[in-house]
Amino acid sequence: MTINEIIQSAVITAIQELYGETITPEQATPTVTRKEFEGDFTIVTFPFTRFAKKKPGEIAEELGAHLVKNVQQLDRFNVVQGFLNLVVADSFWTNFLTEIADNEDFGKQPNNGQKVMIEFCSPNTNKPLHLGHVRNILLGWSCSQICEAAGYEVKKVQVINDRGIAICKSMLAWQKWGEGKTPESTGTKSDHFVGDYYVLFEQKFQEEYKVWQISTTGQAILDEKRKPEQADDQFFKDFKNTYFNEYSPLGKEAREMLLNWEAGDPDTMVLWRQMNQWVYDGFGATYQALGVSFDKYYYESDTYLLGKDIVEQGLASGVFYKKEDGSVWADLTDAKLDQKVVMRSDGTSVYITQDLGTAQMRYEDFGTEKMVYVVADEQNYHFQVLFEILKRLGEPYAAGLHHLSYGMVDLPSGKMKSREGTVVDADDLIAEVIEEARTASAERGELAELPKETQDDILRKIGLAALKFHIIKVGPQKRMVFDPKESVDLQGQTGPHIQYAYVRIKSVLRKAGEKLAKGNRQYSIESIELEPQEKELIAQLYRFPVAISTAANNYDPSEIANYCYDLAKAFHRFFTDLSILKAETEEAKLLRLELCGAVANVLKTGMGLLGIEMPERM
Predict the structure, then answer these.
(1) What is the pLDDT of residues 15-60, one digit of tens each?
(2) What is the pTM (predicted TM-score) of this model?
(3) How far apart are CA 567 and CA 493, in angstroms?
(4) How far is it, in rounded angstroms, from Cα 454 to Cα 432?
(5) What is the tens place of the pLDDT at every residue in 132-173?
(6) Most CB atoms closer than 10 Å: which of 4, 93, 126, 533?
(7) Is 237 within the bounds of a domain?
(8) Considering the domain boundaries, does residue 93 fall inside one?
(9) Half-sphere exposure at residue 412, Cβ-oriented, CA atoms within 13 angstroms
(10) 72, 88, 104 — which closes off a domain?
(11) Residue 94 CA neighbour count, 13 Å, CB half
């Protein structure tokens, strides 16, 4: 039992013995004592006045005395009005420390027999990965690592959006203006090479559109359809998609290319495979740089026709209904959603159809009880509909579906737009943060004596820690503005600040020597009276398994990021206030060394769950 559970059980027993009343575990749940008061855990006694017929303070005094007398892990208590603050005995904390000091896997939990599939990244093959993808990737990867640590068997997947009009735009632009160039011939990273043609298509289209706007046809459309209150510029901005679909020569060529792809035209397929492979090669390099991988890739070109059989089954079971035009719908109004089309009147699929089929395929592939979709909050409604339909279809995995909805990432200058080339590419971002780490390191001069290869590896770890932690520490639901300069700040609530705590510990342990560092103790530490800084640090370590469970249950890596920051901050305080190698006694020295080792293990594990490596030196 954890100390929380021990206190909770003892409170239930004490209330029964003192007042003859049975209370629920929730009523006896201890909370962490506020920092301005002495204590480790607090019990609120106000709810007990109903049956105890006493003031909250009196109840707290009686309950505290009973608990300290009967629970050996408690040392003393104090009362602040109706709040009972309990102080855990130092012996409990020191015994705990000796148990975990050499356990590099502390916090990780045994396999729970459950499987979870996490889908993340899922980019389009018409452009390189950008800052928005980075947030998605870091959330998905962190969640997968945290769920594994919480005991789940995790499958990491993504759906590559490798078909559609956007992909055809890149293909058409290269076909018309590429002049046979390749990533190799231009020395361009292959996904950036393809993305440049997507931007080029938009530039050419805009040029075409401007010419059309002043043409006889364009002016006639303006005169006919513009509303009186609508300015000319605003009309043409709103009319852009209609122009692309009905009037644009480039739009017509792109649509014809898509039809050729759907018909399996050999020349179109060869071009499609070549340009997609260029993008896949580029993606792979970026994934490697970020330290992420996937267990399986799904491709929209393979899955876009899935789900039609499910629609037929849903019609037969009454989950769906057919309208007079032949289209198939789901009526979800009783779930406060809307009526949703799942099959067009011509028998073609919509996105929801494809997602129904893909979910079923994944269940057949992996048999997972839980499926997590890491997708931006712009798709909240889509996933509400998808999950509701799967529930009504009676799918065995429907209860375990979760949309990890996250806020979009903006730049200080506003939204990013891929087709206009105003994005922060993931590769450029990675290079920038590593270079910033290099600049900061050069100013300090602390790595100058190390070989260049070693320096480069350390700077890579520092730069990526700055990038990853800056993004992960923000709760997923929050929209965030990404400021590159702020992200690489090596001070404050940053990844490098936490890495520095780890580096400090490693330096101390090297100086102490392997014998003490590995906890081959020659002295008993169980009778030591702890300093407040030591106790705070041990108590922080004690909470690590709970932090992992909470983060896994909520699919929220920021829980671990903020836990690691709090632990590092507590260590820096401990390091500043207390001497380690010159401690007052050998027992105190040993305890502090073991405490250092335990903190290092937990920081390495915790940051590892976020995909962040810890350097030995900085």
Answers:
(1) 999 999 999 999 999 999 998 999 999 999 999 999 999 999 999 9
(2) 0.91
(3) 12
(4) 19
(5) 899 999 999 999 999 999 999 999 999 999 999 999 999 999
(6) 126
(7) yes
(8) no
(9) 5
(10) 88
(11) 18
